[in-house]
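Here is my example:
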Amino acid sequence: MKNIVVLSGAGMSAESGISTFRDADGLWEGHDVMSVASPQGFAKNPDLVYDFYNQRRKQLFEVKPNNGHLLLAELQKKNSVTIVTQNVDDLHERAGSNNVLHLHGELRKARSIKNENYIIDWNNDLNDTDKDPKGFPLRPHIVWFGEAVPMLDKAIDIVTKADIILIIGTSLQVYPAASLFQFAKKNTPIFYIDPRPASSIPSNVSVIKKGASEGLVDFMDALKNL
């Protein structure tokens, strides 16, 4: 049984209808990304940020896992698969994958603005009247630009133990997530699935220039020879 670590990004969920701001000149659903995904944006206009994530949360209940998500869940049946995702949706889990680490938080959770360890499940609209047990407001459980990535060390540890690395649907532009594959052991096979792959890819990375679902079929064929 091979230990496969999957590093997934926004392109993984694009086929389900979830958009990525990287494909729209820095706009995310019509908003400048820094206005809705930074501490400064939240401080300046919290109502906008609450509403933005409320809309994103509602969207999750309108979309479904795509074939790429389902193929990864299928891959888990014959291999040890850990998914380290930049995505804040829950489509990996809804497809059946049960070993998923969210680097950038989760839409269906909220946390205290004062205690980052107070994290609860949240499926409804969120606003500043929602409080933690000490009376502090809750905020979306999202890692914004300029904030530390709490799960980064755990993700690095996971990557160092991989037999195979599979990168899917990421521009490899958002750091530190973009550098994770570089922590793999020497000579670890690395595959990169993306219809528009980043230009600065090391020569030891095998590029599959396709979308997530189609590319995963090719990867699973290649896996038979590893």
Summary: The chain has eight helices and eleven strands. The helical segments are 10-14, 33-36, 39-44, 46-60, 67-75, 91-95, 152-160, 212-223. The domain at 19-61+108-142 is CATH 3.30.1600.10 (SIR2/SIRT2 'Small Domain'). The first strand starts at residue 3 and ends at 8.
